[in-house]
Amino acid sequence: MDAESVVFVGDGREPIAARLLFQPDTIVSVTNAAADVRYVEGDDYYVDRHAARIIRVPGSRMPWTTREAVASADGQLTHGRTVAVTYSHASGQWRGFVPANAGTELPRTTRRLQQREPLTICVTGDSISEGYDASAFHALPPFQPPFAALAASALQQSTSADVRLHNFGTAGWTTRDALSDTERITAVNPDLVVVAFGMNDASYAEADEYGGNVSRLVAAVRADVAHAEFILVAPMLPTPECDWVVHARFAQYRDVLAQMSGEGVALADVTTLWTDLLARKDPHDLSGNGWNHPNDFGHRIYAQTILAVMGCPPRRGGSGSNA
Description:
By secondary structure, the protein is α/β, with parallel strands linked by helices. The chain is built from ten helices and 13 strands.
């Protein structure tokens, strides 16, 4: 497990515990999110391996926050209060959703990668797609790129194909906005279009409107670029503090996107994976702004889901390294 993010949320009493995804064997490192401060076991924390918890001890240098501060953070960047834990663990502990290889639904993309032919990827989406709140987006260490760049880099590393990324993600956009942006997408003659909306749509759009917009977007791009294939991304879940969206819509959006899957269209189901992660993690462990953006760890979840759908597991230690 590489740099799993945790946030210590307490009520003023110490010690404060945070949950890890797996029961750790060996702790490799515990650092701040920037990876330039290394914490010491015993002085700053101890680990309850059986309960898969890391515990912040009184007087620790590790950051922490209160539930009240989390609730009133007003969407501010959480990078400064995040801790990154790298550790080894036994296999077989994950019982949740595992994204499946959908390469058969993307035959042209798969063939081009296998034959090391150039692959042009276009991303259309919202602020998450644009890169909020990956550390590189804010020019903060450790400068991890957002999910689109992570996935493109991992594809190029693993296949040696020339992967060309055009990211048109725009903060605040919804599927309705994307319908007016198809000319910019088709102008780059994409082989693969990653469609990643939902967070902003969930403030107003029922599932049929959301799905209808995505369907029209796919049809409009195909009208000009018949060979284009698509990955439809069902998004992460917001934190409970993000109260201007209808939380029930995210599962509905996922189901609508799943119904579109088929020849030339694959689903990257971040929604289901995120749901299962939250069975083990506090939602703020994964959040980059306490509301509706992923942090570095969350962006890796996005990238790895897309890569798994494409049948391309990321290499350990590379820019798309395993979460």
